[in-house]
Amino acid sequence: MICNYITSGFAFAGNPVVLHSDFDGASFDSGGGSLTLSVGGIEIYTARFSPPLDIDISEIVAAHIGDGNYEVPEDIRDPIVDVLDPGTLNEWKVDVEAVYSGHIDEYSFIALPGGVSKQNLCRFAAMGKDAFDARFANYKGNFFLTTRTAGWQLSIRETELEPLYFLMNRSGLRLEFAEPFSGKRYSLSFDNKPESVYALDIDALRLCFVELHGVLPNMFDVYADDSFCCRIVVEMALPVKERHRLRFINSLGVFETFELTGPLSVYAQNGNEDENGIFQRYDRTVGDFRTERERIGQKLTITTETGVKRPDEIRFMMDMLSSQDVRLLDFAPYPIKVIPSVESLEYNPRSETPQSFSIKLEVAETETYIMQDIMTGNENLRPRIFSNQFSKQFN
After folding, report:
1. Which residues are within 8 A (CB) of 269 and not within 5 positions of it... i.e. 6 or more apart?
2. SS3 sequence, 293-340?
């Protein structure tokens, strides 16, 4: 059994995974063949087929493994963290078994959430590689799971800092991070580490440089086994009156952050204000009917400006607009899930003037019962003057 789209043993579930087998030499079987698909050792799909076998299993696998939702634990502040539970990568191992007329054909690979664009998929196929051989498991270049750039230099605003996720598919890999101006180098070894998805916490990495070398770098050169890979640049954010952020799952299945620098306007709209919620109730006192209604829901829509964006940031914004999970930060005490959209996304790829866009954020949930937000459950208690570290005499 072969799959022309997989050469590394890894695949994105959002891209085609077409398996093919001719069963040459097998005698004719009027009952056909049986196909079994398992993920993580659990059988999830069975089917009958007639040779030649030619099937795209990507939608079946994607429905089973979900979005991934890699998260860095809040209580861990190491520069590099394994974001998967032990063995989780094996839970995404796909095993395919096809049986026809006594002949058994098998194929295995590991599926990850997300996918690459059709244009890139065609380019990788023309090179005889898949996305992982060409980039995401190629430690000679930028191997991070980010859609900010396809180049070797990764620029991130300080207000958009988010852990950079990457796949580690071999043991013994040694990563080093160097501050190019002072020559200081911080080394991290991956000896005997399992295959998994890891996250590089840039804030924790900068703290390591402060503690070890006494410098706070804004630029890192990344080396893998003494070979230069890429450069990470932390850009200064422009001073603005208002700043909000959108945290979203990018095309590659990991979280990234996009900054908005325009003022917010909130529009509250009654969600079900129609005649179906209005009814007549008979009042015996006056001997007539009076009009009443059921409690109606309320939906919030937020409009704002993105602020000036470069052409590469516009492409990054387009990925955010297509995301299945977008959360607005810095608006409420907790992230709010929203559905973003823009009325017009016309831009010049070689702009000579600043480009900004109006964006609409529709809050995903309609509230029927409206009250003030509760975060800790202690909002109704009189606050302390000092923190809990002080004794009761100070309060």
Report:
1. 298, 299, 300, 301
2. ECCCCEEEEEEEECCCCCHHHHHHHHHHHCCCCEEEECCCCCCEEEEE
- DSSP, collapsed to helix, strand or coil, labels residue 62 as helix
Per-residue model confidence as pLDDT tens digits over 52-75: 889 999 999 999 988 766 877 777
Task: Please tell me the pTM assigned to this model.
Answer: 0.86
User: Does an H or E element contain 55, and which?
Assistant: strand 53-56
CA-closest candidate to residue 361, choices 311, 323, 394: 323
Find the DSSP H helices in 143-300.
202-213
Nearest Cα neighbor of 193 from 178, 165, 174 is 174
Q: In what order do the strands lie in the sheet with 10-12?
A: 10-12, 103-112, 93-100, 33-39, 42-49
User: What is the gyration radius of the CA atoms in the chain, in angstroms?
Assistant: 27
Q: Which amino acid is at 395?
A: N
214: which 2 tokens?
Answer: 């006494």
d(CA 53, CA 270): 53
Of 296, 146, 282, 116, the C-alpha closest to 222 is 146
Give the other-Cβ count within 10 Å of 132's Cβ. 23
Give 344-366 pLDDT, tens digit per residue: 888 887 777 788 889 999 998 87
Please state whether 41 falls in left (phi above 0), alpha (psi between -120 and 50) or beta: left
CA 391 to the chain's CA centroid: 44
As given in the structure block, the two tokens for residue 109 are 């690979």
What average pLDDT does the segment 367-391 reach? 66
